[in-house]
Design brief:
This protein is α/β, with parallel strands linked by helices and 1171 residues long. The protein is built from 23 helices and 23 strands. Strands 2-1-4-5-6-7 form a six-stranded antiparallel beta sheet. Strands 8-20-21-3-22-23 form a six-stranded mixed beta sheet, with helices on one face. It has a four-stranded mixed beta sheet with strand order 14-15-16-17, sandwiched between helices. It is flat.
Length: 1171
């Protein structure tokens, strides 16, 4: 068995897939410091299950993943694949080759695989446990582990021996058995507690189970008795309900007969009421006809009076006055106008006086006529009222008086309410005027506040724009600064030398780097760097001795190579290229020597031209191309020169300083702008708050104005409505007062003795007098108007005379028209008078017939009222009989409903308490069913061996006693656990099961203790044998490595092979010290190597991995150690990481690990031929 192949992908510095093929023998891995040699050892430890990040020289496990370089991005996972040759079957797996793969993801996940099959870490450790790979991994000796072995405790050194002896698998078996034993002990204790608890519960639960058995028997007795009593009650209720249903048919027949009689009586009553209604309607119709005829008679009488007056007026019409002057004569009388105006004025005054007297007489005559007319109408109404009766007039008068009093109170109330409404309207108007004045003031303030807020808002917008601009500018500057910082860092990293020149800086006599001591004209850096060549990156020494000393230091310390320019050299020939360089005087000579024969040109054509002119010259272009007659260097270059990089760095640093200054200025400006913006926002908020407050006040005042306006309008409308109502009430009061006066007059007239028909003679005479008075007034008025017209015509002079002529003509025409009208009216009056006289006679005849019809209708109405009263009494008696029957039926129905409810309650009770339907209950437990005997005389349940007694007949009293006896028995038992029987049986079963489990656990504990004893014996045997072998081997190896010295292993507890530790005692030749801490570093390392080699020899392993274990040894001790390597090579594979040439010489194969400037490790292999 040996390690055959190792493949690394993304593990630490091995970014690319790297394959290392191993062979039996010694394989050396060499390379400079920091190249990644130890990463190979870490990869082997890691793939074989190492879990400690510190053991892998990291802070956390994710550090094993390639972290990236300046030119290569970090990777997301690391993978190591180890292939082991298992042709000898050393590993317990049926494969000749075993490939173990471990993958780590940056998220923290880790995967294992064995031959491509996903596996666990435990599978890997168990597979390798027999090959010496355990917790300590003693076959892998890393850097610093030798000293750790010496400083380890005795118990830790014991672990190395156990791991080499293969005790690890026995230890694991013991640990697993101990864990199982601890679990078994805990389960055993818990099981014993459970069994004890179950035993404590069984006794009381047994008593509860016995009580539950007795309670079950008593409950059966109680249920049977209760069921039989319920069945008896249900059977009795059903029989009672059947009897009630039989009586229900007779009651229904009686109710039907009563309903027929009641319906007949109701029909008779309705017929009588219809007859009464018809008789009343006939009476009302006759009464209305009589009243209508009386009113018509009154109107006909008035019509006759009017027709008589018109006839008289037409017969008394004067002749038409045709004495008016001719219009032609009016022109001749124009000279007398002024004289006649005075006469006409006197005539007008006299005529007006006469007209006034005539109007008075006419008013008096009309008043007398109206009074006479009213007296005549009152007399007529008095006769009618006397016939209708005084009672109606008195009632109507009393009603009118009541309405007058109510109207007076209503009028006073309306007046008071109108005054209140007017007061409210006036108060609302005053408040409206005051509020309107306040609103006018607020309007001015509102305008000012609007202006203030708009100004503040504009200021905020401007400042926000300024702040946004400054923020954007700051962002741009920050981006520029970040880019420049990154560029400066990159340029500084690029200008940093990685050769030995770095170690020379700061030495005495070293002035610095050439690139730092010279300044090149902008744009010519590449040309100067090409001209100087390697000297552009060289170190400048003050003298030749200093330069030689620096080179010697590099060689002595193995620091690499470097170019050193000597300052103070003599100047050579002048060169044009030197004009592009500014340097101190000491460098001028060296620069002239370095740049001798080199000229600077713009491009390749210019270089060609310069070479053709002088073939001995060397031309360099601005972009760094070098042209000579014998050599041309040029093309594209991805890497600028150091001088160009430093010039670019200086320029970039200047730009960064400028951007930093701009950024500071921008930051200060931004802070100031933000402060101004904050103040502007505060002012805007203040103005907005004031504006909102003003708006709120404005809205409140506007609402108040609207409220006052509505209040005023509502009060005004209410006052107007009340005024209208008062006026309507006043008018109604006047009407009612008039009506009351009329009614009182009618009542006075009707209260006297019976009068005859009134005589219309006085009324007619007064009518004639009134007509004559009106005619006189009309004539006087016409005369006045004539005189006035004459006066007006005279006042108009000639035009007036013409108008007077026209007026005269019109007057004559009107007179004729009036005369014709009077004649027509007189003719119509005669016709109306004749017709009215005939109609008056007809009305009197009709009134006599109407009186007779009214009396007959009154008689029929009285008879109908008497018949209606009789039918109503009969209908009421029939209804009372039907109601009695209905109440009886209702009572019977309530009884039946109660019985049905009782039956339903009994059925529900049976179903709820016994789980039996009503029919099933009666069928199984009815009073006709025999009662079985289910208990002994002492109340206990019948057993299987007892003889079953014969059933007994049902007796309710016996069943009630039986029920009471069962209830007393249950009460005597108290509270019974109904689940006690089931719980008792379940608890017994669980107790038996746990007892069996307890026995099994005890047997398991005994087996585990025996196993632990066997393992301890085996470990003791294996460790004792291994220790003796290692102890013997350590003495021999120590003698070989320390000739003449003495070394041995000691047990800290010799009698206790299971726990004793191992101490190391070493005494080199010629020294009396035995403590390891007093030895030198090389001696300590050699003692540790002796201990490890003793393990390797005593208990060989298929392979060993040694990382620079011989670094601290001198040449003599190294030779002794290499001799042991030669012996180990016979049976084991050795992977040795070393810097020692002698170690490399004994190797069978050699791997070189190097790291270029990109920070990635690469491997070169070489097979060596042994002599």
């Amino acid at each position: 068995m040996y390690l055959k192949q190792l493949i690394l992908r993304g593990f630490k510095s091995f970014a690319s897939a790297t394959t290392l093929n191993f062979e039996p023998g010694i394989t050396c891995i060499v390379g400079p410091n920091g190249s990644g040699k130890s990463n190979v050892v870490d990869a082997l430890s890691w793939v074989m299950g190492e879990q400690g990040a510190k053991s892998l020289r990291g802070g956390k496990m994710e550090d094993v993943i390639f972290a990236g370089t300046s030119r290569r991005a970090p990777l997301g996972r690391a993978e190591v694949q180890l292939t082991i040759d298992n042709s000898d079957g050393a590993l317990p797996i049926e494969y000749s080759e075993v490939t173990i793969t471990r993958t780590m993801f940056r998220s923290g996940g880790s995967e294992y695989a064995i031959n491509g099959v996903p596996s666990r870490l435990l599978d890997v450790t168990e597979l390798l446990s027999d090959s010496g790979i355990g917790r300590e991994m003693h076959v892998i000796v890393g850097q610093g582990q030798l000293d750790a072995i010496l400083q380890a405790t005795p118990e830790s050194r014991r672990g190395f021996i156990e791991e080499a002896a293969g005790v690890l698998k026995h230890r694991k078996r013991k640990e697993k058995a101990v864990r199982k034993l601890e679990g078994t002990r805990a389960n055993l204790e818990r099981l014993q507690d459970l069994i004890g608890e179950l035993q404590r519960q069984l006794k009381p639960l047994g008593r509860q189970a016995e009580a539950a058995r007795r309670a079950a028997v008593i409950q059966a007795e109680q249920r049977d008795a209760k069921a039989r009593l319920l069945a008896d009650d249900l059977h009795a209720a059903r029989e009672a309900l059947a009897a009630d249903l039989a009586d229900e048919a007779a009651a229904a027949e009686a109710k039907k007969c009563a309903e027929t009689e009641a319906n007949a009586a109701l029909a008779a009553e309705e017929a009588a009421e219809a007859e009464l209604k018809k008789a009343a309607q006939d009476f009302d119709r006759c009464q209305e006809r009589w009243y209508a005829l009386a009113a018509l008679k009154e109107r006909v009488s008035s019509t006759i009076s009017v027709a008589t007056e018109r006839m008289r007026h037409g017969d008394a019409q004067p002749a038409i006055d045709a004495s008016g002057r001719d219009p032609d004569s009016l022109e001749a009388e124009a000279r007398e106008i002024r004289r006649r105006e005075t006469e006409l004025a006197d005539d007008i005054e006299q005529a007006r006086s006469t007209l006034h007297d005539a109007s008075g007489r006419r008013n008096e005559a009309e008043t007398q006529h109206a009074e006479a007319e009213q007296a005549y109408a009152a007399a007529l109404r008095a006769v009618a009222d006397r016939r209708e009766g005084l009672a109606r007039l008195k009632g109507e008068a009393a009603a009118v008086r009541s309405r007058l009093e109510a109207e007076q109170e209503e009028q006073e109330r309306l007046v008071a309410r109108r005054e209140e409404a007017l007061a409210r309207a006036q108060e609302a108007a005053e408040q409206y005027r005051q509020t309107e004045n306040t609103l006018a003031g607020l309007g001015t303030d509102e305008s000012n506040l609007d202006a203030m807020w708009e100004a503040a808002n504009s200021s905020v917008i401007e400042h926000e724009a300024e702040v946004a601009r400054l923020v954007e500018e700051g962002t741009r500057l920050a981006k520029d600064k970040a880019a420049l910082v990154a560029r400066v860092e990159a340029l500084r990293l690029a200008t940093r030398q990685r050769d030995g020149s770095t170690e020379l800086l700061g030495r005495t006599g070293v002035l610095g780097r050439m690139g730092d001591l010279i300044q090149v004209a902008p744009g010519w850096e590449q040309a100067v760097a090409t001209g100087l060549g390697a000297a552009a990156e060289a170190i400048v020494a003050a003298s030749l001795d200093d330069a030689l000393s620096a080179v010697a230091h590099l060689a002595a310390e193995d620091l690499g190579r470097s170019h050193v320019v000597v300052a103070g050299a003599e100047a050579g020939e002048a060169t044009p290229l030197l004009e592009l360089i500014a340097a101190c005087q000491e460098l001028t000579g060296a620069l002239s020597r370095l740049l001798a024969g080199i000229v600077a040109v713009e491009d390749l054509p210019a270089a060609k031209q310069a070479i053709e002119e002088n073939p001995s010259l060397i031309a360099v272009t601005r972009v760094g191309e070098r042209v000579s007659r014998w050599l041309v260097e040029g093309g594209s270059t991805a890497k600028p020169s150091l001088l160009a990089l430093k010039a670019d760095l200086a320029e970039t640093e200047e730009q960064m300083a400028q951007v930093a200054a701009d950024s500071d200025r921008q930051r200060f400006a931004l802070e100031a702008a933000r402060a101004v913006l904050q103040r502007a926002r505060a002012e805007e908020a203040t103005a907005l708050a004031s504006l909102h407050e003003s708006d709120a006040q404005f809205a409140a005042i506007s609402d108040a104005l609207g409220s006052y306006r509505q209040t005023q309008a509502a009060a005004t409308r209410e006052a107007d409505r009340l005024t209208s109502a008062i006026e309507a009430a006043r008018q109604g009061r006047v009407d009612h007062e008039t009506r009351l006066a009329e009614l009182e007059a009618r009542l006075v007239a009707a209260s006297g003795e019976e009068i005859l028909e009134p005589d219309p003679t006085n009324r007619d005479e007064l009518a004639v007098a009134a007509r004559l008075a009106r005619q006189t007034e009309m004539e006087t008025r016409l005369q006045l108007r004539t005189i006035e017209e004459q006066a007006r015509s005279l006042a108009g002079r000639a035009e007036g005379l013409l108008r007077a002529a026209a007026a005269e003509r019109q007057s004559r025409a009107r007179a004729r028209a009036r005369a014709e009208q009077f004649r027509r009216e007189a003719a119509v009056g005669r016709a109306v008078y004749d017709a009215a006289r005939r109609l008056f006679g007809m009305i009197e005849n009709a009134m006599e017939r109407a009186t007779t019809s009214r009396d007959e209708a009154e008689t029929r109405r009285r008879f109908a009222e008497a018949a209606t009263v009789e039918t109503r009494q009969a209908s009421r008696a029939a209804g009372q009989r039907l109601e009695e029957l209905m109440r009886g039926a209702h009572r019977d129905e309530l009884v039946r409903i109660e019985r049905r409810m009782r039956i339903e309650q009994l059925e529900e009770k049976s179903l709820a308490e016994l789980g039996l339907e009503g029919d099933q209950l009666v069928a199984e437990y009815g009073p006709n069913q025999p009662v079985p005997v289910i208990t002994r005389p002492d109340g206990t349940a019948l057993g299987p061996e007892d003889e079953v007694p014969d059933p007994v007949a049902y007796v309710r009293a016996e069943q009630e006693k039986r029920l009471r006896r069962a209830e007393r028995g249950l009460a005597a038992l108290g509270r019974v656990n109904p689940l006690a029987l089931e719980e008792f049986e379940a608890l017994k079963t669980r107790h038996a099961f746990l007892a069996e489990q307890l026995a099994d656990l005890k047997q398991t504990r005994a087996d585990l203790l025996a196993l632990i004893d066997d393992v301890d014996k085996r470990v003791q045997e294996v460790f004792e044998a291994a220790y003796h072998d290692v102890e013997h081997t350590f003495g021999e190896v120590f003698q070989r490595l320390f000739p003449g010295g003495e070394g041995k292993l000691l047990l800290t507890d010799p009698g206790n092979w299971l726990e004793t530790g191992v101490d190391v005692e070493a005494r080199p030749a010629g020294k009396q010290v035995k403590r390891l801490s007093l030895l030198s570093g090389g001696e300590r390392s050699l003692v540790a190597v002796a201990f490890l080699v003793s393990l390797f020899i005593a208990r060989p392993s298929p392979f060993y991995i040694l990382d620079e274990v011989e670094a601290a040894l001198d040449d003599a001790n190294l030779g002794r150690l290499l001799g042991i390597y030669e012996e180990l090579r016979q049976n084991s594979q050795l992977l040795v990481i070393t810097h020692q040439k002698r170690t490399m010489e004994i190797a069978d194969s050699l791997y070189g690990v190097t790291m270029r400037g990109d920070g990635i490790s690469t491997v070169v292999s070489q097979r060596l031929q042994q002599p």
